[in-house]
């Protein structure tokens, strides 16, 4: 797991460690949670191919979380998110690692709208429409997955993650929230169940207000159990009734579609 010391990495580590032997990779130093925690800790950079090749040797699957998680300047996005993801796929090719679970984001398709939804909601594999350099880097990562899958037969699961968090915050997250436990269910399905080629899956909980399809989830056997609706009354009392013509609720990418490009 790359980016293992981050927020998603930490939530996954706690939940997956009982069922898997984890190799945790991050640029930041990490410690074992307790002396007998069955994890291997590796410090390195995702942009260094030698580090990545060493980190990938002998593993069954990579969960690639490392990256800048929000809008930033082009040079850093390009280096960490795009070059880092290319390096990861190349290390997997060199080491024969078959499965890559790529933490993509809803922002790869942030300018898609509610109007584009079909009867099952907005398609998991709808074509890229990034809302930021960050979203563009996630779309680029997905396309690197497509390239390595087509050329080398890798199994690639692109998770278009909504809003990862302990509880939903704000009206948008009534639809886009992904709970910590559902994140573990999602990644467990993505690493363990049969997959052919490249698959896109929305990373969201079983939210009543969800408008993104469940087809990708069904395809990989991901069964979310949490629902942001539980917090609806509280959030509506704080923010008022949702108005779906508001760009923050109309576009997949919500507030990112309204922020300055490059985060300036
Ligand atoms: C993301 O991809 C970001 O990493 C996170 O900070 C949130 O903004 C999330 O998307 C979201 O759309 O809520």
Q: So what's the overall shape?
A: globular
Strands of the widest sheet, in order across it, are 3-4-5-8
Each distinct ligand: D-galactaro-1,5-lactone
Q: How many DSSP-defined strands?
A: 8
What is the helix content? Answer: 25-40%
Specify the biggest β-sheet.
Answer: 4 strands, parallel
Provide the gyration radius in Å: 18 Å
| Beta strand % | 5-15%
Secondary-structure element series: HEEHEHEHEEHEHEHHH
Helix- and strand-based class?
alpha/beta
**Oligomer type:** single chain
Task: Tell me, rounded to a whole number, the average pLDDT.
Answer: 97
Output the number of helix runs: 9
First-residue to last-residue Cα separation: 31 Å
Query: Low-confidence spans: pLDDT under 50, at least 5 residues?
Result: none
Please explain how this structure is put together.
There is one protein chain. 36% of the residues lie in helices and 14% in strands. The protein has 264 residues and is of the alpha/beta class. β4, α4 and β5 form a beta-alpha-beta unit. α2 (49-56) crosses α3. The mean pLDDT is 97. The chain binds D-galactaro-1,5-lactone. D-galactaro-1,5-lactone binds at residues 69-70, 105-107, 161, 163, 176, 254.
Summarize the structure.
The chain has 264 residues and is of the alpha/beta class. The chain has helices at 7-16, 49-56, 74-95, 133-152, 173-176, 180-192, 215-220, 232-239, 247-250, and strands at 22-26, 39-43, 61-64, 99-105, 155-161, 163-164, 177-178, 198-203.
Name some characteristics of this structure.
alpha/beta, about 260 residues, four-stranded parallel sheet, 9 helices, about 35% helix, globular, binds D-galactaro-1,5-lactone, single chain, two-stranded parallel ribbon
